[in-house]
Fold this sequence. Notes:
The chain has helices at 11-24, 36-45, 62-71, 89-97, 110-125, and strands at 2-7, 28-33, 50-53, 80-84, 102-105. The chain has 134 residues and is an alpha/beta fold. It has one domain: Rossmann fold, CATH 3.40.50. Helix 2 (36-45) runs parallel beside helix 3.
Amino acid sequence: MKKLLVVDDDIIDARFVVRAFSEVGGSLxxxxxxxxxxxxxxxxAEPFDYVLLDINMPGMSGMELLKxxxxxxxxxxxxxxxxxxxxNPRDIxxxxxxxxxxxxxxxxxxxxxxxxxxxxxxxxxxxxxxxxPH
Length: 134
């Protein structure tokens, strides 16, 4: 079973993500953490197949965590998808420059989260060939 780490300090958004993926079905185990430091520890301790990462978080930002992920040999090639409320062109450009595999806007409705989960699953789980987790 593939594992997805959701890193988002907004518990409501995280619940929408988890619920949407469970409604879509599929073979993803979802782990949510609300802090980039906790995410760093989890990524060090166990393998994940994907990361959904918010940018704006207290303490270490999602952008800083993305840089850490890319600078660690163990996680450098891990697919990271930014899922954020920011449409700031600088955030978009910086995310890709720092190694994000994709950038998506947080949906504004439950059905939007379901559509995101369906698209994510269809592409990242069913179609894309990704590296093995380390």
